[in-house]
Amino acid sequence: MKISKIKPIPKNVLKLIRKKDKELYPKPTSLKRFYSYLTKNDGELVKVTVAVKHKFNAWYCKQVAVHGIDSDYCYVRDMVYYYIAGYVVGWHDEGLTNNAKWYEAGGWGCAEDKMFDPFAPMVNAEYALKLPEFKYSAIDVYPYCDTLQYLRLYRKYPQMEYLTKLKLNYIAMSVQILRLCAKDKKFRKWLARNVEQINENYYYVSAIIEAYKKNKPIKEVHKRQEYEKKLSAERYYPELRREFKQDAQKLFEYINSSTATISSYNDYLKACLYLGVDMKDTKNRYPKDFKRWHDIRVDEYHSAKAKEEETLRTEFYQQFSAIAQKYSVLEQRYNGAYVVLIARTPAELVKEGYKLDHCVGKMGYDKKMARGESLIFFVRNKEEETTPFVTIEFSPKDKKILQCYGKNDSTPDANVLNFVNNEWLPYTKQQLKQIAA
Question: DSSP assignment of 199-239, as one string?
Fold first, then answer.
């Protein structure tokens, strides 16, 4: 194909484009949209992509890309691709914008064949049927937009016509399926008998082929392969992957023959492992009444977890309280306009953070204090000891203030900073020496 051989949109094709656009967009719209048509360029079959737009109550249509069936390059004009916005078309030459964009150079440019090929419904697919090599391609009944890719593959695998006429469109371009069709007449007949089953869902190509070879239902094979993919993925079901590394097939058979799903069995397994149930025992590994035992084990798991969490919570509160008690001597009361109080419970941190709209009630400050890594103190006005005012994070190890903030993480005024740095901090360092002694 050659740039010099690119001809204007034929009038009959323009009518087809306008008709298709009216079907899809009955009312004028500024939405960007594309259509395509087949023609010849220097003897080569090409697909021409056009952009369509409504503006000022007028309808505009222009050629923006040309792809050839035998070319490893394409031509593009007045169009660019952005990662977020997708394909963008300039309309300066049509008088719809005041200034030309950088990509509107006024002529055709060259790019790789895979570039500049937006989703564009084909308006005259039957054009290809006029060419001897594509006379029986069934491209006119193929519903998708990858027309040239279809015709290129058809040259190598004419069995595509058979699949397309059976309306097995989503597997018509599978090379695995086409290769098997080419050498196995029984497989072609099997496909014809199972059209309805294949089209009822999206199935893996590998599942379709395995179902044929092993004479099994496609749905069952697909489901097993889906489980296998999930078990092989690192982020899915690590417990199942470890526990059934050697007998995954038996697990799939059990799931298919019971009320279990892979996710519900995973929940059951996690509960059993936590509870210490012997999963080597067949009656636990493959319970006869899965739903009943799933509900029992999951309920026991939640009860045990709640008990464990309550124990941990109690221990945590005791640790927090012990730290607060140990460093309570660092509190400073009734010496001037301010007082300093140590946080006694995690709940006090939550209240302080909520009232002052900062993060002391979250972000793990309670855990840091329970471990004695940092201490949280509240600076209050002497006359309003219960009203949150300023919060201090202090490091007992380094004997320094890590943070000192008021509402919305604001810096306290000079009077507060003077009190904290020149009165409370020296007092605190002195008391820490006594605690260490």
Answer: HTS---HHHHHHHHHHT--HHHHHHHHHHHHHHHSTTS-HH
- What residue ranges do the domains of the chain occupy? 3-112, 128-215, 225-299, 327-436
SS3 of residue 110 by DSSP: strand
Task: At 140, list the tokens.
Answer: 């006119």
CB atoms within 10 A of CB 321: 14
Nearest to 42 by CA among 12, 66, 77: 66
Q: Cα-flanking dihedrals φ and ψ of residue 64, to 5°? A: -130, -15
Average pLDDT for 222-231: 83
Token representation of residue 205: 């190509």
Give residue-wise pLDDT tens across range 79-88.
999 988 899 9
Average of per-residue pLDDT across 408-414: 93
Cut 0.90: pTM above it: no
Token reading at 359? 């993060």
Listing from the earlier edge strand, what are the strands of the sheet with 390-395? 338-342, 375-381, 390-395, 400-405
Are 394 and 365 spatial neighbours (Cβ–Cβ below 8 Å)?
no
Q: Could you report the per-residue pLDDT of 105-140, keeping only the tens digit for each?
A: 778 999 999 999 999 999 999 999 999 999 999 999
Other CB atoms within 10 A of residue 185 CB: 9
